Amino acid sequence: MTVAVAKTRKRKVTNLDIPSLELSSDRVAKPSTENKPKMARTFRRNAVEADFLHFVQLSMPLPIADTALRAEAKRLAATEIAFIGNPSFSDSSAEGEILGDLLFSTGEPSGSVKASKIPDLPSYLARLCETKLLTPLEEKALFNRMNYLRFRANQLKSKLDLNKPDDWLIRRIDGLMRAADWHRDCIVKSNMRLVISIVKKFVNTQNVFDDLLSDGIVALIRAVDKFDVAMGFRFSTYATQVVRRNTYRRVMEKQKERQRNIASIDENGIDFSDEQKSSSMSENRWNELRSRLALMLDHLDRREKFIIRARFSLGGHRKVQTLQRLADKLGVSKERIRQLEKRALDKLRGMTDLSILPESVG
Q1: Domains in the chain and their CATH numbers?
Q2: How far is CA 213 from CA 60, 116, 168, 315, 318, in A?
């Protein structure tokens, strides 16, 4: 859920949404002046500090219970805050130079490049490409802002006391991380058309577009986290190589898995040649096969039934499982899974003669 940046001051942010929770005004924690110590500031500039306080209240509006506070402190302490450092982040002038008077900004909102359209895209994919391309200045500003906010979060993280966790300190760290993620998401959304244009080239009957796109987006997010804008070249140059290499690796892994499955079928002497030669199978014959197979599987023990279903993508199994994956799930060796599979197949062969099934009828 997103909340548009409110025009509470004369300055404004164009075409940007701050991700937050949908909250009624009575749930937002209201500061009290009675016997309450002054909260530590996160930013020197009043405008940025006001934006940050409002964002933190929306993100974590209610007081955190003691048990939850300790758990959150432990989680933050165990979390590695990765960022690309810059010596200038430690300068006293860094906040003003990097953030200016706006906590949420692309750096140059009015100078964005109009998004180019990718032809023949369904509507749900076209919406992913609606975000405008970033100019070089916007791109540099977003990367600097994202890494600077994570740098500040990492500084505050070093002050965590697990024995006496401070509620406001935890809120500040969480708020800085969320603000950094907002800038990261701006970069990701502006490069979605790049991912789509790359993964489309790898689509075939064995590699579905949606699966490749999902993997490509994950690779793009990793690329954003690891890109050093100080190197001087555009992010798209780096991201293209990362996404293309990741997609190629996924395609090759699937191809190897199919080859292993074919080898396993051949090894167990299963012959599908007659069925492959047949251009069609009547509904009656298919229903008969399915019902008989279900009856035969009921004669197997639990492990054998599970292995056969997983190895041949039956029932709720959408994909063929490898021997190693099943071995890991059942806590046995890969060779043991092979033995159990062979034993189950021998049982199935001995239960019935499929040749007596009725042929297709008109």
Answers
A1: 2-31+40-190 (no CATH), 282-356 (1.10.10.10)
A2: 32, 19, 39, 27, 19
Distance from CA of residue 221 to its chain's centroid? 8
Q: How confident is the model at residue 327 (pLDDT cuts 50, 70, 90)?
A: confident
Cα 48 to Cα 45, 51, 77, 165: the distances in Å are 5, 5, 26, 25
What are 217's two structure tokens? 């987006």
Helix axes 302-311, 323-330, angle to 10 degrees: 150
Residues paired with 18 in a beta bridge = 3
44 within 8 A of 80, measured Cβ to Cβ? no
3-class SS at 283? helix
* 3-state secondary structure at position 158: coil
| Residue 315 DSSP symbol | T
Placement of tokens 């639990």 in the chain: 302
Q: Helix 283-297 crosses helix 302-311 at what angle (to 10 degrees)?
A: 140
The rounded distance, in Å, linking the Cα atoms of 85 and 88 is: 9
Q: How far is it, in rounded angstroms, from Cα 135 to Cα 117?
A: 17
Nearest partner of 85 among 155, 15, 164, 190, judged by Cα: 155
Q: How confident is residue 14, by pLDDT bands cut at 50, 70 and 90?
A: very low
Q: CA 327, CA 346: separation in Å to the nearest integer? A: 20
Phi-psi bin for 313: left (phi > 0), alpha (psi -120 to 50), beta? left
Rounded to 10°, the helix 192-199/235-267 angle is 40
pTM: 0.64
